[in-house]
Structures are given as C-alpha cells and as structure tokens.
Specification:
Number of domains: 1
Strand content: 15-25%
Distance between the termini: 34 Å
CATH topology: Rossmann fold
Order of helices and strands: EHEHHHEHEHEEEEHH
Oligomer: single chain
Mean pLDDT: 92
Helix content: 25-40%
Radius of gyration: 16 Å
Number of helices: 8
CATH architecture: 3-Layer(aba) Sandwich
Length: 187
Amino acid sequence: MTHRKLVGFTGSFNRPSRSRALVELVADLAAERYNVTANVYDINDLGASLGNARRFADLDAKAQTVLRQITDADVLVVGTPTYKGSYTGLFKHAIDLIDPSALLGTPVILTATGGGDRHALIVEHQLRPLFGFFQAHALPTAVYAADREFVDYRLAAEPIRQRVRQAVAELAPFVGAATKPAAIAAE
C-alpha cells in the first residue's frame, strides 16, 4: 500500500501565524489518525518569484516544488487569514498557477482565520467555490477560528477543536482510496 501524503498550504505571510497554526493542527491530527505524511507550507515558502509569475514556468525551482507538492498530495488542508472578506491575494495567485485539472477529486479541508465572527462565511463563500472550480472534493466540515479563540498562536477554543476533529474524521473514506481520479478527457 502506498503511503499517503497530506499537504497544508496557508495564505499567510506571518510567522507565527494563526492560519498556519490552524492548518498545522489539522495536518498533525490527520497524520496521527491516518498515518499519513504531512507537510505544511505558506506564502513565504513560495518565495519572491511568486509575485512576478504569470504562469507556473515563471516560478523559481523552490516555488515550483511547493506547488508540485500541493498538486501531488493525496489530501490538502488549506487555510488563509481573512483579508477584506476574502482570502489573501497571493494565496489566490498561487492557486491560479495550478493547472485546473491537477486537483480533481482531491479531498480538501478548508480553514480560515479572522478577527471576528463576521468573517466566518469565508470558507463557504470564497474557499469552497474556489476549490469547486478545481473539482476538488471540499469536505463538508470547514473550520473558521476568530483571533479570540487562540492563545499564543495555539487554538484554545474547544468548540473549534471539535470542528477540527470532525473535519479530520471526514477524511476516513478518502485515505484508503488507491489513487486519485483521472482527469476527464475533453470532448
């Protein structure tokens, strides 16, 4: 049986970051529960070439490697801080450089963080449609956490930790699958 790979990716520039901490929590729990290899990246890991890239080939080797890790993953956990009601611009730009068929059928856990409750629907109104375009399988339970739910960049709120556990539990049917579905041929 092939060992499964989980990749986390956040749209945050900051380190430490609440968004990255949330994605790492999800990734660590999934790695422990399903014995998958987990790696987490953020915008900083893509480096300076991201801002000038108009297509994948314009990225430097380091950034290309990170995006290949994302597209080759068996499971994705994505997260972003909320910026003016949406994901960060460079997060979207990085995702735009991915081939539209590269995430077909990939299970994705959606996460986001923000200053307060009024941004909680970012996962439903921004992230879910984005990954729907890629025909990825965004899992039903998404996780949003407000700043007040963290202490020293660690998720402290038990109700949100329970959502994390629920989202990870929803991976069960996917981590046993032998392969990702093949892209549908254009007619």
